[in-house]
Automatic annotation (TrEMBL):
<dbReference type="GO" id="GO:0000049">
    <property type="term" value="F:tRNA binding"/>
</dbReference>
<keyword id="KW-0489">Methyltransferase</keyword>
<dbReference type="InterPro" id="IPR058240">
    <property type="entry name" value="rSAM_sf"/>
</dbReference>
<dbReference type="InterPro" id="IPR007197">
    <property type="entry name" value="rSAM"/>
</dbReference>
<dbReference type="GO" id="GO:0002935">
    <property type="term" value="F:tRNA (adenine(37)-C2)-methyltransferase activity"/>
</dbReference>
<keyword id="KW-0808">Transferase</keyword>
<dbReference type="Pfam" id="PF04055">
    <property type="entry name" value="Radical_SAM"/>
</dbReference>
<dbReference type="GO" id="GO:0005737">
    <property type="term" value="C:cytoplasm"/>
</dbReference>
<feature type="binding site">
    <location>
        <position position="111"/>
    </location>
    <ligand>
        <name>[4Fe-4S] cluster</name>
    </ligand>
</feature>
<dbReference type="Pfam" id="PF21016">
    <property type="entry name" value="RlmN_N"/>
</dbReference>
<keyword id="KW-0408">Iron</keyword>
<keyword id="KW-0698">rRNA processing</keyword>
<keyword id="KW-1015">Disulfide bond</keyword>
<feature type="binding site">
    <location>
        <position position="115"/>
    </location>
    <ligand>
        <name>[4Fe-4S] cluster</name>
    </ligand>
</feature>
<dbReference type="GO" id="GO:0019843">
    <property type="term" value="F:rRNA binding"/>
</dbReference>
<feature type="binding site">
    <location>
        <position position="118"/>
    </location>
    <ligand>
        <name>[4Fe-4S] cluster</name>
    </ligand>
</feature>
<dbReference type="GO" id="GO:0046872">
    <property type="term" value="F:metal ion binding"/>
</dbReference>
Length: 348
């Protein structure tokens, strides 16, 4: 299989041109065709010499994701199940807000983190995605939005997989997304979510970007977090929180803590009080997420009034907190649900 052209930065494309006896500016033209004009074949790149188009086609592919299925929610959310070249499948979601269109991308086929409330981990990790396979999700979504004159205005790396276990590909993807000559997504409109891969959190703090960091915390202490998130046994709660404090001190940026509320498990007022004490004095925000029902799991959703009480306890502790607006509930838009159904039907 030919390498995907989306795997390469502008600088790498310019270097390739130079090495192949082409003017360096051709790299910029190629980049423009890929990310501004968003064509699907080298043949369509009309201002490149035919010999160069043929050479590019010989060496590279423009990755076209195979759309297995697409669901559109009543609230405008669109969920794709894309097939890859090796028969694996991934999910990508477009979420429409009053402030613009956000896309949730996937960084791995499956996941090995093992969170007990998440469908993404069913079946374990199959492989990492390349930077180009992550890029292709955004480009494909933008091509769909082009038809109505809309654009992708923000990106959340919160789909299946742990982006910090696919660190290099994730960072290449981010550099491609924020490039001013490409899609030019504002850095503060991009959020990377991690389950707490401590070494990569320190590394990310040194990247000198304005990209937002979110941590899936889901518990206020080590014991409960280890039950919900096996990764906590590798990177204990105290070490994860130390990495969060380092990130805030190094970057001066607020960190978001994602907290999935599970009925009778981590959603009691005493949990909220403990969380408020842990986060006291940190530059942070808590995003409460009513857990999605996953048939393979036994967890139930926290009652509505208990969600509001959890929020009130955090607010009394002077912690910034919101309850995440649910989107795509009628189309199984939570991470991994659509892929899990596809894996089951394929197995049958």
């Amino acid at each position: 299989m030919k390498p995907c052209i989306y795997d390469y930065t502008l600088e790498q494309l310019q270097e390739w041109m130079k090495e192949n006896g082409e003017p360096v500016f051709r790299g910029g033209q190629l980049f423009d065709w890929l990310y501004v004009k968003r064509v699907k074949s080298f043949e369509d790149m009309s201002n490149l010499p035919k010999s160069l188009r043929e050479k590019l086609d010989e060496h590279y592919s423009i990755l076209t994701l195979n759309e297995i299925t697409r669901f559109e929610s009543k609230d405008g959310t669109v969920k794709f199940l894309f097939g890859l070249h090796d028969s694996h499948a991934i999910e990508t979601v477009i979420m429409r807000h009053n402030y613009g269109n956000s896309i949730c991308v996937t960084t791995q086929v499956g996941c090995r983190i093992g969170c007990t409330f998440c469908a993404s981990t069913l079946g374990g990790l199959k492989r990492n995605l390349t930077a180009g396979e992550i890029v292709a999700q955004v480009v494909t979504a933008q091509q769909m939005l082009d038809a109505t004159g809309e654009r992708v205005s923000s990106i959340v790396i919160m789909g299946s997989g742990e982006p910090f276990e696919n660190y290099d590909a994730t960072m290449t993807f981010l550099r491609l997304m924020i490039h001013e000559k490409g899609l030019n997504i504002g850095q503060r409109h991009i959020t990377v979510s991690t389950s707490g891969i401590v070494p990569s959190m320190y590394k990310f703090a040194d990247e000198n970007t304005q990209i937002n960091l979110a941590l899936s915390i889901h518990a206020p202490n080590d014991a409960l977090r280890s039950k919900l998130m096996p990764v906590n046994r590798r990177f204990p709660f105290e070490d994860v929180m130390a990495a969060c404090r380092h990130y805030i001190a190094k970057t001066g940026r607020r960190i978001t803590f994602e907290y999935a509320l599970i009925g009778g498990v981590n959603d009691r007022p005493e949990h909220a009080q403990e969380l408020a004490e842990v986060l006291q004095g940190m530059l942070c925000h808590v995003n409460l997420i009513p857990v999605n029902h996953v048939p393979e799991r036994n967890y139930v959703r926290t009652p509505r009034e208990d969600i509001f009480e959890f929020q009130r306890v955090l607010e009394r502790g002077k912690i910034s907190v919101t309850i995440r607006r649910e989107q795509g509930h009628d189309i199984a838009a939570a991470c991994g649900q659509l892929r899990a159904k596809h894996m089951e039907s394929t197995a049958r």
